[in-house]
Write a structure and sequence with these properties.
The complex is a heterodimer.
Chain A (H helix, E strand, L loop, with lengths): L1 H16 L2 H4 L2 H5 L8 H13 L6 H17 L5 H19 L4 H26 L6 H42 L1
Helix pairs in contact in A: 1-4, 1-5, 4-5, 4-6, 4-7, 4-8, 5-6, 6-7, 7-8
Chain B lengths: L1 H26 L7 H34 L2 H36 L8 E11 L7 E4 L12 E3 L4 E8 L4 E5 L9 E6 L6 E10 L4 E6 L11 E4 L11 E10 L6 E7 L8 E7 L4 H10 L1
Antiparallel strand pairs in B: 1-2, 1-12, 2-5, 3-4, 3-12, 4-5, 6-7, 6-9, 7-8, 8-11, 9-10, 10-11
The chains are: A mainly alpha, B alpha+beta.
């Protein structure tokens, strides 16, 4: 039963991304900022940090799967989100072996990973010709506001799901031992 | 250990190749989405409709509450306008019946302005703002096809980029570029003729559409309304696109261009109309040729 919770939460987050733009207040746009919410990705970071074991890669699997879904329904170019989410989740999974995951470490990882994933998306989209911003404008208009917004979303998701993820993880992986 | 490292490198490289392949596959001008994409879009579109319905409803209520403060003033202005419309309405009815008589004399039944409206509701908006796209709840099963124009009561907002069986993706006007031009007309003040031109794209800096005229006209004034002319072979004629804000020349000073402010609000969209042109479009003709 627990196994069904995780994909359903991810599906819900993907669905909610479609309504995110409605909640962004008008002054954000007037200042020329571009906000992107990466709530699915932030949940995948939590997933890799607190659910996965050192030798399991469920987070990576879901990153590739849901990256592709986001590509299909919200953009018309396949593979960009899939690759960016997949690669970054893989790095985060690598970091969990080195660092002890408490709240501050998790937040720091989330901030850096969001910055990295957004920068990667921008680089690929700019290469294809979808994004027509130059690097300096990108940093001020998109990267910094996006990272700030997503750290708040991460804190929210952390408070909501951290304990549950640890519990589900214990339930699942200790049975095997 | 070295075996694992090599395997890791190999996997990342394989991922890169897959990425380039997928991008190449999706960036080509595809006529139809693959059935997997259609299925995923429909499945998520269905969930979005259920989950986002209360959210959309609430945000609509909030917008309505904001509008209430303006209601009294608006009502006054509208009442004044209404008295003028009575006269125009009478004229329009006269002209319409006259037009019908003349058309029947000529045995001409279909016109380039005719279209079948398909009502649709917006169910989601792409969170990635570089793609100016929205998802609507009507698809191929309701007759929505690629390249159809999408309008609201105020004017044109975009065109259908791709359609699945039960949902479709709409590219908004602010995502238009040279590959999806709109042929437009602007009425000239004196002789009643039309200035022809194309909407070439969208200027991100001042949030306006760029209109390039095919000929040079001195007398085009600011504030004129821009309509689609239907001559591009895709959209019907007479759809309102926007008002001219500024007339100038392009960077080489050779052609006349104008900046056009879209009439419809592209940010706050709830109900839209997909426009199915009755006269054969370029795509219909191509499809028929393929069938023969």
């Amino acid at each position: 039963m627990y196994r069904l919770y995780l994909p359903s939460i991810l599906i819900l987050l993907v669905v909610f991304q479609g309504a995110v733009l409605q909640f962004i207040p008008a002054f954000v746009e007037e200042n020329g900022w571009i906000l992107a919410s990466h709530s699915v990705f932030l949940f995948l970071i939590l997933f890799s940090l607190f659910y996965d074991q050192n030798d399991t890669y469920y987070g990576l699997f879901f990153a590739i799967l849901f990256g592709l879904v986001i590509d299909m329904i919200y953009t018309n170019i396949l593979g960009v989100y899939m690759f960016s989410y997949g690669l970054t989740t893989y790095f985060v999974h690598g970091l969990r072996k080195i660092l002890h995951a408490n709240f501050y470490v998790a937040l720091l990882i989330a901030i850096f990973a969001t910055g990295f994933v957004d920068f990667m998306l921008f680089t690929i989209y700019q290469f294809i010709g979808v994004a027509q911003l130059d690097m300096a404008n990108y940093f001020y208009q998109r990267l910094i506001p996006t990272v700030i917004l997503n750290s708040f979303i991460f804190i929210l998701l952390y408070l909501l799901f951290k304990r549950r993820l640890v519990k589900w993880s214990n339930d699942r992986f200790e049975k095997k031992l | 250990m070295s075996f694992f490292r090599r395997k890791r490198l190999f996997t990342i490289l394989l991922g890169l190749i897959l990425l380039v392949g997928l991008i190449g596959f999706s960036i080509t001008d595809r006529d139809e989405l693959s059935s997997t994409e259609q299925f995923v879009q429909d499945a998520f579109g269905w969930m979005q409709q259920i989950v986002l319905m209360p959210i959309n409803y609430t945000s609509q209520v909030v917008t309505n509450l904001n509008n209430i403060s303006n209601l009294h003033h608006e009502n006054q202005v509208l009442k004044e306008n209404l008295s003028q419309y009575q006269r125009t309405l009478y004229e329009v009815q006269e002209l319409r019946s006259e037009n019908e008589e003349l058309m029947s004399l000529l045995d001409k039944t279909e016109s380039i302005t005719d279209y079948t409206p398909i009502q649709a509701a917006v169910i989601a908006r792409s969170p990635e703002q570089w793609f100016n796209q929205i998802t609507i709840n009507k698809g191929k099963q309701h007759g929505v096809e690629r390249d159809m124009a999408v309008i609201t009561a105020e004017g044109m907002i975009g065109k259908v980029q791709s359609s699945s069986q039960f949902t479709s993706t709409v590219l908004l006007l602010n995502g238009f570029d040279r590959s999806n031009r709109i042929a437009v007309n602007v009425q000239l003040p004196d002789d009643g003729g039309d200035a022809r031109g194309f909407i070439l794209g969208y200027n991100e800096d001042n949030d306006q559409l760029i209109l390039e005229f095919t000929e040079y006209h001195d007398e085009i004034s600011e504030g004129e309304t821009v309509f689609s002319s239907g001559l591009g072979g895709v959209f019907p004629a007479g759809l309102e696109i926007g008002g001219i804000e500024e007339v100038t020349t392009d960077q080489y000073g050779l052609t006349q261009i104008a900046y056009v402010e879209p009439s419809a609000d592209l940010e706050d969209l709830n109900h839209v109309i997909v426009v199915d042109r009755e006269m054969a479009t370029n795509r219909d003709i191509e499809n028929e040729e393929e069938d023969n």
